[in-house]
TrEMBL record:
This is DUF393 domain-containing protein. One of its GO terms (molecular function) is protein-disulfide reductase activity. InterPro entries: DCC1-like. The chain crosses the membrane at residues 87-108. Keywords: Membrane, Transmembrane, Transmembrane helix. It comes from Leptospira fluminis.
Length: 116
């Protein structure tokens, strides 16, 4: 499957703003930006076998030519195509940066969903 799609939670204000920011700044027009809530469970599984509503609720997701990139890894993969981020994206591949990125994404997720 050659589909390239960035999925976010359209009911989450933070995720919605992130998705819109990335869409506005993405130079690669082949990537779709959509709320996972537009899809039925079986449609999410068609995009990727390990993708479902519960997984999509936990993190933003990038499906790029059959490979699923969750959370920080989705943003890192997309950063190559973002206006103003191309050179900075190399920094995201340095040692320990992914660990820090996962922690930051988890912190942001907990701040947007207090009590969960």
């Amino acid at each position: 499957m050659n589909e390239r799609i960035f999925l976010y939670d359209g009911d989450c204000p933070f995720c919605f703003r992130l998705g819109n920011y990335l869409k506005r700044n993405c130079l690669d027009t082949s990537i779709q930006f959509r709320s996972f809530r537009e899809f039925q469970e079986q449609d999410l599984r068609k995009l990727h076998p390990s993708l479902g509503t519960e997984v999509a609720q936990g993190n933003v997701q990038l499906i790029d030519k059959g490979i699923r990139y969750p959370g920080f890894f989705a943003v890192r993969r997309l950063s190559h195509s973002l206006r103003g981020w191309r050179w900075f994206s190399l920094f995201l591949y340095l040692p320990f940066v992914p660990l820090l990125g996962v922690v930051v994404m988890s912190l942001l997720k907990s701040l947007r969903n207090p009590g969960h």
